[in-house]
């Protein structure tokens, strides 16, 4: 818990000093390119218009056999350990998944099975998902938010979902989704300001 508190303090000091926000995307899509990352690209582009950002991306399907074969954290190789630490040290974590059989993909869940239990406590997490139709949007509240609730993370109240009909290929077209992204990122900025100033 001490490590988490120290990291949070460092984040607040960096933001007050005008440093770039460290954003880490954990991408749970197996496809290249993907609608999921097309949606995330809009989120990142919009966020970059609001404040300086430093973006990293972890593609769970590209972490290899050292990742898929790991049962515990001690089993992972240095490159997988680096990916886990990158996610744990983010100022803002973006969890991005396509809906698979009513939930997030197993490889995405496996990544978070290896994350240290308290490493995400009080961390800002934005939930992003794509699916074939609007009925898949329930994955945000019934699967993703409870997952990060276990970690005691602070999930952004407004989550973002886009269905297949909202895209042309991987390009997001629906203006309603663009508006929702603006709402979610406004929440992020408000939460960051509150943390940086120590407001209750």
Word description of this protein:
The protein is an alpha/beta fold and 200 residues long. It has a single domain (2-197), classed as Rossmann fold, CATH 3.40.50.360. Helices cover 44% and strands 20% of the residues. The protein has helices at residues 2-16, 35-48, 65-68, 78-88, 106-113, 139-150, 175-197; strands spanning 21-27, 53-59, 92-98, 124-131, 154-155, 160-163, 167-168, 171-172. Strands 1, 2, 3, 4, 5 and 6 form a six-stranded parallel β-sheet that branches. The chain has a two-stranded antiparallel ribbon with strand order 7-8. Helix 1 crosses helix 7 (175-197) and helix 2 crosses helix 7. The chain is globular. The chain starts with a helix and ends with a helix. Residues 1-12 have low confidence and may be disordered. This is FMN reductase. It holds the Pfam family FMN_red. Keywords: Flavoprotein, FMN, Oxidoreductase. InterPro entries: Flavoprotein-like_sf (IPR029039), FMN_Rdtase-like_dom (IPR005025), NAD(P)H-dep_FMN_reductase (IPR051814). Residues 22-164 form the NADPH-dependent FMN reductase-like domain.
